Every structure is written in structure tokens, then in C-alpha cells.
Amino acid sequence: MTIKTIRVWDLPTRLTHWLLFLLVTAAMVTGLSGGNLMEWHGRIGLGILGLLTFRLIWGVIGSTYARFHQFVRGPAAIRAYCAATGAALVTIRSAHYRCWRCSVRCCCKLPAA
User: Fold this and answer.
1) Buried b / exposed e across 2-17, counting CB within 10 Å, b at 16+?
2) For the whole model, what pTM was predicted?
3) Which one has a higher pLDDT value, 87 or 41?
């Protein structure tokens, strides 16, 4: 039996997501530490802004699977999702949706700061 590998995202998208994760983590650490690290906190914030800008541009002009029209379903799907508590998205079987769902559940369980 041959295992077929399907790549969902291209390298720039993956790097952007991982760098965004690292920079947000660093921003949290430097922001909570305060003091002299606040200068780095500001620099990290600019890096996050740059990554988000790149991702928005790449979502429009990037490769096939990096483009937003591949996974943004539109207002009708959003209304259906809200009305049916996610039943409209059950048919989407990608790692991205499963990770998103898990992260939302984890964030909802975190205590408010």
C-alpha cells in the first residue's frame, strides 16, 4: 500500500505560523517581565506586525493552498456555523481545523487575567 502525502500549506505559510507562535510567546515573556525587556517587547511587536502583514499579502497572492479563498467560506457559512454550533464545518477534515478547535477549547479553559 502506498501512502500519499498531501501538503496543506507551503513553506512560507508554515514559517510564518511558527515564527508568529515564537514571537507571541516572546512578547508575552518580555511583557510580563517588564523592566529593560520592554524595549525588546516593542521590537517583537513590530516583528509580529510584519508577519501579519506578510501573511495577509501571501493570503491573496500566495500559492494555491495559502490563499484565503481556499478556507474562508463566506458570510453564509459563518451564519450557518453560528446557527448550528459548528455543524457547517464538520465536513472539513484537515489538521488545521482540528488544531484550531483544540486551541479554542484550551483558551476557553484558561483563567481570565
Assistant:
1) eeeeeeebeeebeebe
2) 0.62
3) 41
